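Field reference: sequence -> structure
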Amino acid sequence: MPSTTVTFFPVDNGDMTLIRLGDVDASTILIDVNIRVDADDPNSKVRDVAKDLRDQLKKDSNGRPYVDAFLLSHPDQDHCRGLTRHFYLGPLEDYPDDKKADKDKKIVIRELWSSPIVFRRASKNHTLCDDAKAFNKEARRRVKVNKDHYFAVSDGDRIQIMGKDIDGKTDDLVQIVRPVDQAFNTIAGRTSKMFSAHLLAPIDASDDEEVEECLVKNQSSVIINFTLAADDITPDGAKFLTGGDAEVFIWNRQWDRHKNDPSVLEYDLMQTPHHCSWHSLSYDSWSDKRNDAKLDADARKALSRTRSGAVIVASCKPIQDDDSDPPCIRAKREYVSIVNGVSGKFYCTGEYPKKDEVEPMVFTVTAQGVALNQLREAGSKTAAFTSTTFSPRPHGSA
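Structure field:
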């Protein structure tokens, strides 16, 4: 059986993360995508992350590359850039690339994981980019297919909705809606023993206009804490917490909601929200107040539910000691402090293994937590990975 892995692709300030489950099908969950135009240029020094991704994907019986599920945490451009260039959106019977070379075939998305309330909140702040609009159109198409033919839906038309929409708009879609503060383990129409996904956000729409406005301003995103199996007998190999660009108000609310049972926030591996932004930990501007900026204690509590040996990964540019945000040096210092307390480690995708020769960062889920796969050779466009190294979580730690 293959191992369960989590891969963070070096995509500058943006997110693109692949969970590959250790089941017979090597099922895949892609969280966000940020494939810049330069990354598609063979003459560019920018990492070819699209090829890196394709190298981890399987092909279906028609020779089409696919992901079993694609989660869009929220529709900012740096979380969906390159979607229409590299992924097929539409009914599978209309797939146009069967006669193309494998490298030119668009990737099939067997199942979308989408949140309509996140889209509504995001669109209040800014105009959606073309990739976000295309994703939303595809999500709406799939919702209609599921409304009309739920018991006959197949790959390419599947969708799971993360959280309820406003005004009862999802009340008649209970079969595909995943409620907040509940876990699910279905993917592409089947139940899996290799993962469980505890949906922590988006927080449902509020009748309190002030609260709802704060949710809009604080980058409402899908937040999931995945429990990933190491093998058939170790269902809780590692917990992986990911939360898009969720900012301080949302993490503060997470602590308020779960402080009596903080175990739902525990992790062995966490992706820093909003590319290591200070705004996930504070209401104050780092560039304006620098070291006088006040840390929000409850947001930090929500983001520091580490298990022994926990790893925090920032998906961002190299982190400098300057006024930048994101990434922000003060946020990095907080995250380093968090993992230091449990003998863990902090990594930045823009600095791994070194700033001028970045590579995907691959973690293997073990019975004791996660282990970082070591590069066999650095500097190539598609370096291979071999042995793992990291201080694993001792049995029974929490």
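Note: Residues 5-389 form a domain with the Metallo-beta-lactamase; Chain A fold (CATH 3.60.15.10).
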